[in-house]
Design goal:
This protein has 14 helices and five strands. A five-stranded antiparallel beta sheet has the order 2-1-5-4-3. It starts with a helix and ends in a 5-residue tail after the last helix. It is an alpha+beta fold. The longest helix is centred in the middle third of the chain and has 61 residues. The radius of gyration is 30 Å and the shape is elongated. Helix content is 67%, strand content 8%.
Length: 453
């Protein structure tokens, strides 16, 4: 039995400041390699006790196993993971964090912060419910630990769905981005140390500059996310218009059949107009998966920017502790690992930005194609309507004409919406200067590895 398993929770909660960050690294088996002063101070374990111990030495017994199953499933596929976690200190007190875990070259790197959002309160209720289910499965039904974790994971995913999330990935993106946003700008404010000199000052300056660049991206992506959500709703409306117009063709063909003997040309025009409306519908239907992919790319981009921002804050926090004398200069040896993590996020951001921009170009093309086909349909329908008047068959067609005229008038709204969408898309490319970001990361790494003792 490990030391952590012998500790009895006493119900006392430690309050973590919004500016405080926990840092630790582990090997591939989850054994602690290093930790910062915040981790040592809050866990109440000494660094010697933590080093070499399994990271779950601070696991609280109330935590559902399913949470850790979700995290490990992501980590073992090489993706960063995150979760709200309740930890247990050596003295029996507990504390809550939002924990991020990122694969490194030979282990994992974790940065944790105090949760501050409304989502956290909802998640705590989910955890309580799932923990009770897991307890019943293990104690009453004799389920083994692996199956209990699987059951807990499935329950969590189901309950996240009830909270409005389509997937755990969507929840994770929302949780990380909102928690990072709640912290605000810290690298250039809370961790600023005007009296710092030499390499330490360069690390802090680099972190501040990187924070400014990432903050700008976050602001762009937030408006971009709202834009993509609105596009999904707008495309649905336009598709509905196109489908109704496709139905109008059938009505025009039926009406033409009534006067086929006296005005056969009406039937010919009605048949021809079927092609552009069908093409418009097919093109607009293609927008549905394109926009879903676009939303996914934007979500991934938001996640990576938020993660890079948190890692950058951790860099600044290390430097600030050295300036304040809380940590020795040797603690900056952890900074290159954080730089590696930020660099990996930058590469992922670049890839996602390219996907977003390509998806935008595809959507612009589809919107333009649909607009052209609907305009072509309107010309045919207008010609058909003129022929009705020319051949003086309006009275014969009677009530068949009215729904066609109504759809013809309504199609203007659909056309206007398509043109507006096209204009917005064309001006919505995501600017991404990967070289500028990489330059700042390299600046921080160089300064942190210089002789600062």
């Amino acid at each position: 039995m490990s030391l952590g398993e012998l500790i009895v929770p006493n119900g006392v909660e430690q309050v973590i400041g919004s500016e405080e960050l926990f840092f630790s690294t582990t090997d591939r088996h989850g054994l602690v390699r290093s930790g910062n002063s915040m981790f040592v101070r809050t866990s109440r374990f000494s660094l010697d006790e933590l080093t070499g111990a399994p990271h779950n030495i601070v696991r609280h017994p109330d935590m559902p196993a399913g949470v850790f199953r979700l995290m490990w499933d992501r980590l073992l596929t090489g993706r960063p993971a995150g979760a709200y976690v309740q930890n247990l200190a050596k003295d029996g007190s507990h504390y809550w964090v939002f924990a991020t875990m990122t694969p490194s070259s030979d282990g994992f790197l974790s940065v944790r912060m105090a949760p501050r959002t409304e989502l956290f309160e909802a998640v705590k209720r989910v955890y309580k419910y799932v923990a009770d289910i897991e307890y019943e499965a293990a104690k009453r039904n004799g389920m083994n630990r692996r199956d209990v974790a699987q059951l807990g994971m499935e329950q969590i995913e189901q309950l996240l769905g009830e909270l409005g999330f389509d997937s755990h990935d969507e929840f994770l993106t929302e949780a990380l981005t909102t928690e990072v946003a709640a912290r605000g700008r810290l690298a250039s404010a809370t961790y600023a140390r005007p009296r710092a000199q030499g390499p330490i000052a360069e690390v802090l300056a680099g972190a501040g500059a990187l924070e400014t660049m990432l903050t700008d991206l976050v602001e762009r992506l937030e408006s971009y996310r709202e834009f993509s959500e609105r596009l999904i709703g707008s495309s649905t409306q336009v598709l509905d218009v196109a489908r109704r117009l496709d139905g109008t063709v059938a009505k025009a063909q039926d009406a033409s059949a009534v006067v086929a003997d006296t005005a056969p040309v009406l039937g010919n025009v009605a048949r021809v107009m079927a092609t552009p409306t069908h093409t418009a519908v097919v093109t607009l239907e293609r927008l549905v998966p394109r926009l879903a992919a676009l939303r996914s790319y934007v979500s991934d981009l938001r996640f990576r920017i938020a993660l890079a921002s948190l890692h950058n804050d951790m860099v600044a926090a290390f430097a600030a502790e050295v300036v304040d004398g809380i940590a020795p200069p040797t603690s900056l040896r952890e900074v290159p690992q954080l730089c590696d993590a930020v660099h990996e996020s930058v590469l992922e951001m670049s890839a996602r930005a390219q996907q977003v921009n390509q998806a935008l170009r595809d959507v612009v093309s589809d919107v333009a194609e649909a607009g052209e086909r609907l305009a072509e349909f309107r010309r045919f329908l207008g010609k058909w309507r003129i022929l009705v008047l020319r051949h003086r068959v309006e009275s014969v067609l009677g009530d068949l004409i009215q729904p066609i005229d109504e759809e013809f008038a309504a199609s203007w709204d659909g056309m206007d919406m398509l043109h507006a969408l096209g204009r917005e898309f064309e001006s919505s490319a995501v600017p991404f200067d990967v070289q500028a970001l990489e330059s700042q990361v390299a600046r921080i790494r160089t300064a942190a590895t210089r002789d600062i003792s």
